[in-house]
Amino acid sequence: QVQLVESGGGLVQPGGSLRLSCVVPGSIRGIHTMGWHRQAPGNEREFVASMGTDSTTNYADYVKGRFTISRDSAKNTVYLQMNSLKPEDTAVYYCNVYSWFRGDYYWGQGTQVTVST
């Protein structure tokens, strides 16, 4: 079973920074976009950021100017740099890849990000 592997979550104070990483297996065919969603307790999973194969990026309004998505193709890794973190950013962050070949997303297991004093 194909599995995306995330890392980099943790506890950080408001105003702090974290960088999430996600290793994308090279066996995934037809990658269209790579990105991140998040889910806070009691809430639905929501979009955070994505990057197309042409490096076009999209961000949710609530993270624009604070979060940056990037990738290292040589390492098959996608990153999410999160700056100026707020308590409302607390959530489990999920890496995802949309494959046009599969017609569906692949998801990681999630990594917890907690922003608190």
Model description:
The chain has 117 residues and is mainly β. The N and C termini lie far apart (38 Å). Strands 2, 4, 5, 6, 9, 10 and 11 form a seven-stranded mixed β-sheet that branches. A four-stranded antiparallel β-sheet has the order 1-3-8-7, with no helix packed on it. It has strands at residues 5-7, 10-12, 18-23, 31-39, 46-52, 57-59, 67-72, 77-82, 91-99, 104-107, 111-115.
In brief:
This protein is mainly beta.
The rough form would be described as: globular
Biggest sheet details? 7 strands, mixed
Radius of gyration, in Å, reads 14 Å
Number of helices: 0
State the helical fraction: under 10%
Q: Which ranges are low-confidence, i.e. pLDDT below 50, for 5 or more consecutive residues? A: none
Task: Look at the structure and give the mean pLDDT.
Answer: 95
The string of secondary-structure elements, in order, is EEEEEEEEEEE
SS elements, strand count: 11
Task: Note the topology.
Elements: E1 5-7, E2 10-12, E3 18-23, E4 31-39, E5 46-52, E6 57-59, E7 67-72, E8 77-82, E9 91-99, E10 104-107, E11 111-115
Parallel strand pairs: 2-11
Antiparallel strand pairs: 1-3, 3-8, 4-5, 4-9, 5-6, 7-8, 9-10, 9-11
